[in-house]
Amino acid sequence: FLLGKYLDWEYLLNSDYHQNVESHLLNRSLCLSPLEVSQMKDEDFSQNLILDSSTLLFTHIPAIFFVLHLVYEELKLNTLMGEGIRSLVGLLVQLARDLKLEPYVDHYYRDYPTLVRTAGQVCTIDQGKSIIFTSEPNNCSSGSMLLLIFLLNFYFKIIQKNLLFICDFHSTSVSSLAERLVVWMTNVGFTLRDLETLPFGIALPIRDAIYHCREQPASDWPEAVCLLIGRQDLSKQACEGNLPKGKSVLSSDVPSGTETEEEDDGMNDMNQEVMSLIWSEDLRVQDVRRLLQSAHPVRVNVVQYPELSDHEFIEEKENRLLQLCQRTMALPVGRGMFTLFSYHPVPTEPLPIPKLNLTGRAPPRNTTVDLNSGNIDVPPNMTSWASFHNGVAAGLKIAPASQIDSAWIVYNKPKHAELANEYAGFLMALGLNGHLTKLATLNIHDYLTKGHEMTSIGLLLGVSAAKLGTMDMSITRLLSIHIPALLPPTSTELDVPHNVQVAAVVGIGLVYQGTAHRHTAEVLLAEIGRPPGPEMEYCTDRESYSLAAGLALGMVCLGHGSNLIGMSDLNVPEQLYQYMVGGHRRFQAGMHREKHKSPSYQIKEGDTINVDVTCPGATLALAMIYLKTNNRSIADWLRAPDTMYLLDFVKPEFLLLRTLARCLILWDDILPNSKWVDSNVPQIIRENSISLSEIELPCSEDLNLETLSQAHVYIIAGACLSLGFRFAGSENLSAFNCLHKFAKDFMTYLSAPNASVTGPYNLETCLSVVLLSLAMVMAGSGNLKVLQLCRFLHMKTGGEMNYGFHLAHHMALGLLFLGGGRYSLSTSNSSIAALLCALYPHFPAHSTDNRYHLQALRHLYVLAAEPRLLVPVDVDTNMPCYALLEVTYKGTQWYEQTKEELMAPTLLPELHLLKQIKVKGPRYWELLIDLSKGTQHLKYDGVLYVKLRAGQLSYKEDPMGWQSLLAQTVANRNSEARAFKPETISAFTSDPALLSFAEYFCKPTVNMGQKQEILDLFSSVLYECVTQETPEMLPAYIAMDQAMRRLGRREMSETSELWQIKLVLEFFSSRSHQERLQNHPKRGLFMNSEFLPVVKCTIDNTLDQWLQAGGDVCVHAYLSGQLFEESQLSMLACFLVYHSVPAPWHLPSIGLEGSTSFAELLFKFKQLKMPVRALLRLAPLLLGNPQPMVM
């Protein structure tokens, strides 16, 4: 644009920029020869300077200037572009002068006083009619500037409402303006890296919003928002929740081959780290492992009396071993509960199944005792079901999230026939944990055609459990083949083993659970009362088949009550009532009536129903159909008889089932106290039942004391069992105390002198039922008192203690430590149905007993287990840790909304009972999980990521909180408290920037001298950043301190840092900030409240000293438009910026002439919005007073 007798090229070659390039190292490295240019003199140039207004771009010079000005303002927002700004200032000043824009020149002077000369060459350019920009410089034009001005205005409450229209928050829950701001910044792509490049004063409101959101974030914010606010715990939680489920951080990393085969007891893969956090004060886990292991020989301790020969002594030891083996064979069911879902198998290795060791060792020589010697009679197939349970226990170790396929399942098939039972159990376990759906249909067909009874049972129950409630037609056809009642009347009669039929019937119930499918319900209703066939085909173990049909019918119509649509003609409740109390057999409807016409040739039942066979199944079917319906008319059917005559017609153990069924129907009436339990006992029994602790029996001719006492204990056991169902997995203290009292009472009754009246078998049964109820309530908790009961009963191996009682006791032990403390029981309808199958209160007399209840059903508890352990995991170390939680319960009809504090890892209550979960401080960042918005944040294997606050130690390292950084400071109330030892900082923060700062700037050295002051300051600042969790403020502290020191030395070449300090001071003194501090008094300070007044006071004193030492002359010269010394340029600019002094051309407009008092000045300067503190300093100059009025 500038043309003269010298060309533009020569003008550029004479510029400072070209000279810098020629002297650059790169220029010499490239061996570039310098250009010869004739030297120009400024005065020559100015004299010969002319304008050529005919050039193309001449008319656009104002627009070009304005664009460059906007670029300049944009660059001021990036601390990394300081050099670029300084290069641009010279050009902008020249153009502003040429365009006669004095406000812009003054604007640049206030920013960079040393780069703007007071006089220079001017080439006047007429702006014409340009309206591109105003006469005053504009500070906000570009996108980033608009954003940041929005932020500042937002925090100073100038245009709060505008932000509401800009942001779109349909997908995220936000409440406060700070949250809206942070979410919007994420939506427009603003990152922490962008924030770090902003000047600290402008970044402060954003950091304050981030700090506010970091304190109280929402659990459903996106990952990007969590990263922006520095909550890596939330971002990882959000990230993990979106990933496909695989191996969890809580999974055990112990490889399967680390233990030798002899040591492998099936419990090597438990997560010891989590269990050591849950039960940190004792060795109960090792005790449970010792009680449940079946891989080692048992100790056979028999004393050889003198009258015993060696042969008799050997027989005595083997008989003792046979007793102990009843217990050993019952252990795998409990072990399966303990190790539930704890293992992720390697696809290239078979699943390790621990041995079922039925040998013994006799002290003192440790000789082996074996049952296969032939000295005593051993029941045939004694170990078949024990091996089946062992296989189930091994298979249930596999977590549902494991990656296995059909080939791996087939790969595990054993080559030896004696291991077939274990593999059958393994298949059932795969169905219970959902993996059997991956098994190819061809393989299922192959297994079933082999005709192996155990394999068929395991496979049918497994596939049914895997297809729970789906009405899957392929599985229905598979099951129907094994149930004669579901085959067409003309079909060929198949020789299906009885136990396989039982498994298939229960399978039908599982597949059709909750569907109220009419045809299935009709068939199952008839099957409860299936009579024995003419050729004795249905004569053995009829009780288990009838029970299975009843359980299956209950599952199909689960919880439907009187709403069984389309079944009114079946009269389901009436038919079940008849099965329960007896009477004439009704005519069988349907296509199978021909089969039931011919009576059995061996069993004479006549036309009456055999209640001993049909009662249990019908009773439980009624309980499941009317579960939780509170239907009193049905419940009254199940009330225990209240006369001696009627009591004689009911087996005492059926009273247990009736009481249980009645209580399950009247679900809301169950109360956790002894009074309620006793209220289930009829008056005649309460008044006449003997106390088992009495020595002498009362005499009575009319009453049968044996019947009364047996009815009493069974009714009590039934009520206790219903209490266990009602409070399953709740750890309800009242329920626990009530059940524990009855368990202790039954143990006392067993040793009472007149226990024989009730019968030891009946008392052992009731004790086992109460113990199971107790374990249900405390499921997964590992309660010590229940463990003591289980351990005591584990040691009882003689007398009435048969295989079934051992099975019950060790199932109770397994429930108590369900899944290694990670799982508990649910009280949903489906879960109660599964538990009724698994905990049916009639236990097998020996290991092959399936007469009353199929043993395989004991494993259906898996369908009621749900993961409820919440484990905090430190997001920085990825290790489980302790954290304090506040759990809020929803209000119910029994209690109002209430809060409870728990130390995690802990078992949560059922999630539908909870309103919210909060991670409490002060050690960890707080986090609120609102469960009303969904429970997906707790679904990922119970992991809750938490972030430790800086300056705090974990609860494991510092249980009482006496070693934290804050606690040490409170304890040491002296002047050195803030200057803590820098080497200790690594224990409180992992931030590399803070660690490096402590290493290089806070360590004292020899002969510190004047540096000691700076070191103390840095240590104090570091302490502040660590304790308030604001490491990002460390550069701001240092920049403010350095700016104060440069101002004190009068070396401020630019005023940008002073601008930022001014913004910081204005922000913290703003009304909105003060209101937030009043509303949240517990919230930590964002910046030290002691540091800012020191900064303000120091700057005020420095500028006042300059004003008194001759600076007032410079200020007067500036305001009057006169020249002043160039050495005062920097300090004058600092004074003008810091005190917001208006430009000289604004002063005439307010009419200062004639002002005689400060009050007049205050009134006239009101429109310029000049601070009073600045006006106090200018008043002496404006009023002609020689002495400045410094504060």
UniProtKB/TrEMBL annotation:
UniProtKB keywords: Cell cycle, Cell division, Mitosis, Phosphoprotein, Repeat, Ubl conjugation pathway
One Pfam family this sequence matches: PC_rep
Family: Belongs to the APC1 family.
Organism encoding this protein: Ursus americanus (American black bear)
Compositional bias per record (Polar residues), positions renumbered to this chain: 249-258
Annotated coiled-coil segments of the chain: none
Region spans: Disordered: 246-266
Name recorded for this polypeptide: Anaphase-promoting complex subunit 1
